[in-house]
């Protein structure tokens, strides 16, 4: 009885929640009891750990809809600039046409995703403009499943929904590929819970967009402006880069050295596969570009 009493008292003073946005020292935290605007507890502010969007936190509500972040749960993963955490999947969005696919950017995002143990989903938008997937198939072969959608016409979007349920999914891609259109198509205004949360988040904000976690299908969609500006992870070494290329790894048995860079080594399974057309030459050239960035 006594134990029960203590538990119920505790649960009244602290609540678990998720940081949806972090801006200027204020954190919007979604809990089962609703949305709270929080600040960090003083000691946390001076300590190393600052909360970021995506963090699971324990908050102490003070007055209605306000509270203090008491502690931050350990993170599954964390990215910097933009700062966000606990991401399960990354939709790497391109357009089949207008703008042309930026394969170097897509590969950079694939490396970043694999490095942080985030599942990448390659999504190609504007399928209403063209059905031609040749360039993509030539480039990736069958290395990755590919989703083809028209966010504007809501075509193929249902196929994506199955992948998103219960997961935290960030969306990245170059300007103009349709990220906002896709987020709107997914979280559409029919969903009242989402609409009211995002309305509240928009209120009083600057026009500059910040990272936002949007509750969606028992999971979250993450709108991350600036994600396409991300650099390769700082502690990623050149000789490990190809470990984040599953299609290259399939050919690495043919490399003489285990830490083959696939550049100047005379016996290299990856280069052989490029010469014989098993791997795309363009993807290989882009790999060389990313490798030179790391060195
Ligand atoms: N034809 C076609 N156009 C689309 C589709 N989705 C988006 N667009 C158009 O593409 C343009 C860019 O869409 P946005 O959703 O603003 O793209 P974004 O990726 O958010 O762009 P930034 O905000 O610059 O990063 C707009 O004119 C959209 O109407 C689509 O499925 N088909
Ligand atoms: Zn090699």
UniProtKB/TrEMBL annotation:
Cofactor binding remark: Binds 1 zinc ion per subunit.
Sequence ranges assigned to domain CP-type G in this UniProt record: 76-230
Binding positions for GTP per the UniProt entry: 125-128, 173-181
Any Pfam family matching the protein: RsgA_N
Major subcellular site: cytoplasm
Cofactor: Zn(2+)
Subcellular localization: Cytoplasm
Recorded superkingdom: Bacteria
Keyword GTP-binding: yes
EngC GTPase domain location: 85-228
EC number of this enzyme: 3.6.1.-
Keyword list, A-Z: Cytoplasm, GTP-binding, Hydrolase, Metal-binding, Nucleotide-binding, Ribosome biogenesis, RNA-binding, rRNA-binding, Zinc
UniProt-annotated binding residues for Zn(2+): 255, 260, 262, 268
Quaternary structure (record): Monomer. Associates with 30S ribosomal subunit, binds 16S rRNA.
Sequence similarity: Belongs to the TRAFAC class YlqF/YawG GTPase family. RsgA subfamily.
Function statement: One of several proteins that assist in the late maturation steps of the functional core of the 30S ribosomal subunit. Helps release RbfA from mature subunits. May play a role in the assembly of ribosomal proteins into the subunit. Circularly permuted GTPase that catalyzes slow GTP hydrolysis, GTPase activity is stimulated by the 30S ribosomal subunit.
HAMAP family in UniProt: GTPase_RsgA
Protein name: Small ribosomal subunit biogenesis GTPase RsgA
Organism for this UniProt entry: Peptococcus simiae
Lineage: Bacteria, Bacillati, Bacillota, Clostridia, Eubacteriales
Gene: rsgA
